[in-house]
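Sat 14:20. Reprocessing the chain from the morning session after the first attempt stalled halfway. Input below, unchanged.
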Amino acid sequence: MRLLGRIGGILGTVGQGLSRIRSRLHLPRVGSPRSRFSVAGIVACGAVVLLAVGLFGILKAQLDNDDSVATGDLRAIIAPSVQEEAIPAATVTPLPKVATPTRMVIEKMGVDAPVITLGLDANRLPEVPNGPDVVAWYDFTAKPGQGSNAVFSGHVDWTVNGQPVTAVFWGLGELEEGDVVKLLLEDGSELQYRVTDNVTIKYDDPEGVKVMDKTPTDVITLISCGGTWVPDRSSPLGGNYTHRVVVRAERVVVSLSG
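Finished this time. Tokens:
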């Protein structure tokens, strides 16, 4: 395979840089669950979406010959957001109680992964998924089925015993409009969502934070790293991805009638 055939050569160039790459990221402090996050802190190099930096990031950049051009229209995702500032607190309707998500299935990506619940730790830092094969749902966002925006993250790559492996959201950028994401809840029910938008934005896009805003309709937001892995010896992480992949999907109500 093309990918495996080049691992040996790339390992030689990576050298000691890999020893500095950490599986857990150090993230900026967050004032509260409703604080505004910088987009650099949303995904894998910052606050909400925390993706391990591994050798596959370097491989992906070299093999894909990524031109680091953002794709899609971010406005299509952030336009429906609910502006809480304009709503008097007394008129805000609490979200309905629903079961917690426990598993995510994306057939097109070959994903059938457990969903874990993460939040903020004692230092007000978002907790980090501890493996490549799990999806994180953040409990400071809505639950799926509550009629608003449920935000999920997953690692794009990982290292196991020093070897590079793809992680749960490796193929996130390949999802297209109409693709289906299924969520299983702890009460045994299943929710389906249909992809409406897949955009790639620069990691420091100031508008990127808005993908986590509340929405007036039932949607899910999946976020991962994308673009090119840029090594940087001055960084404690060894470098950074240039872009973030953001997928938005809307709830599909499945009719049981014949």
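Residues 1-68 have pLDDT under 50 and may be disordered.
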